[in-house]
Amino acid sequence: MTTSSDFKDTLKQQADIVRVVGDYVRLKKSGAQNYSGLCPFHGEKTPSFSVHATRQFYHCFGCGASGDVFSFVQKVENVSFPEAVRVVAQKMGVAMPRISFSSPEEAREAQHRTALLEIHDRASEFFQQYLSGPEGARAREYLAGRALSEETIKRFRIGYAPDSGFVLRDLLSNKFDEQVLRESGLFSWKTEEKSRSLDFAGQSGSGFRGSAADDKPGVEKTGHRQEEQIPPGQKPRRYDNLASESKNKGTSSPLAMYSKFRNRVMFPITNDSGKVIAFTGRTLSTDEKAGPKYLNSPETPIYSKSRVLFNLDQAKEAIRQLNYAILVEGQMDCISVFAAGFHNVIASSGTAFTDAQAKLLGRFSKNAVVNFDPDTAGAKATERTLSLLVEEDFQIKVLRLEAGFDPDLYIRRKGKDAYAHALGQSQRYFDYLIERARAQFPARSAEGKVKAVNYLLPHIQRVPSRIVRDELAHEIAQKLDIDSSVLRQELKHVATARSAATLKAPAELQVTDAERILIRALASGSEIQNAEERWSAREGTDEEFDPARQARLALESERLHEGLPTESLILSLLAAEESGIDVMSLAVPDGEKRLLASILMKEDEELSAERLEGAVRALRRKAIRRRQETVQREIQGLGNKDAHRLVELLREKERLKRALMDPSLAESGSGAMAG
């Protein structure tokens, strides 16, 4: 998909990168034009991520990520460039121009995703209508029994899937092609030749807890039959190919397709923009043939359960404002906690908590309270989740409720005030783990202490900060009554093992202050509107100090940049300065772009004529020293082979020595020597 180049450039000028980035990162002003915060692209405790308000770009000094407002949205949302342009336009309230596509394939994919989103939106409306109708009476009774108000039901768009397998199919088949209906995950079907089955619905998961644990991988239990699945690792056939196969081979007909969700209370799953992308259905039947108690949509082109957090669309603003999230295990828990007034609550969706979900949550806050079930399975899930959050450098607390209570039941039985009190009593995550270690491995014996330490060490290893690891070692030693020196020795091995995997900032070129000043000066040329005006000063008039012009004259006349590590970048800036190109749009290697961003982000001192002249003098002296080294090597290699050449080199060596001792001579006569 492509958009008008003029529109893209205009939007970039209108877009406030501080405002856009601020939707994802908590920014604080850290200079005249700079804002800083925790980088959303790697785990860190001390902010190394900066946004330059005037130049409209971002740069992370930790991981090296850098770019403009579009590349930021691309990276943080994991979308294509055209989609990033659309997101920025929506945030700025700017209407998009008519979209064109770069290829028929791109057009088909965009059309396919749009169709899938529309199918889910229509299905959601369909389920909501049936909930309010006569057939939805039992579903309404069930929801009333869960103490869900009419307002909550509407807010979460809860609905009911009728027992008929054909009503939804007939409704949607009037508008959508059969094959895109297949890929929506809302339907199952029968074929006469199972070997050509097109059902790639995938195994059912449990968005609500403990419901589908006995489902067999690759087989969905519907109570009517077992449907064949695409083997693991095999990709489903493309939509456009399927359409032709269906017509030419007659593998199935619309009459063979029926609704996957029947006689179920339907809970929509949305992305963080609020668009419905999947469903969880809770059966109302007590018949063993009804299938799993909870049934999730399979993964589709618009739904990947490991990358979705339930209720994030409604919770993200509260998470930003309160600066922490409540993470619960099930969707019903999430709905109940939200309805009780705790709007910063989210849940994993049909899967154990994943690394992708931790990164997604980290875009909104690095603080979390984990409130999973207190039973054995819940405790293990809590530990897995804690491990992922620790590695992403979250500040974590654990909320433990009384035995037998999940968040939903706790609120229904004890009320929201009791839950608020329990929330206030949340433990630091390592206090929780230490208690778990002491409960599982009593520290009365040496063997128990060893087991407790071995249980805790992997968790300590995941902590990014060495200082925090050291503090934890001391605390654990006290609470387990262990000689801290022994534990510290174990931690030393842990820290060493961890250091190999820690994130390292990309190596930057060794750049002198003089080079940085020259690069800043050249980059300043993009801020002057008319390039020709910079060269039109009349003879005999005082000119306003123009750092880009002065730097260009010095570099081009004396070739001071030749042989420097930054030579390639300076040449690109010279070309950009001449043509008026935005320096942050230069087509240079990533390493050079990161270096340029880091230099421009640290514009903490005024770029005066004196500083620029000093930088030029420093580069002249550096050029003389490089020439000295070249002359000395040639003298050593010459020996007694050419007496005449040796005399010339010795004279030049003396001239270079005098030039270094006399800065004014170096300024006036070093042009030839630098070559």
Describe this structure in words.
With 675 residues, the chain is of the alpha+beta class. The protein is 49% helix and 9% strand. The protein has 27 helices and 17 strands. A six-stranded mixed β-sheet has the order 12-14-13-15-16-17, sandwiched between helices. Strands 1-2-3-4-5 form a five-stranded antiparallel β-sheet, sandwiched between helices. Helix 21 (513-523) packs across helix 22. It is globular, with a radius of gyration of 33 Å.
Short note summarizing the structure:
This protein is α+β, with helices and mostly antiparallel strands and 675 residues long. 49% of the residues lie in helices and 9% in strands.
List keywords for this structure.
27 helices; disordered C terminus; 6-stranded mixed beta sheet; 5-stranded antiparallel beta sheet; alpha+beta; 675 residues
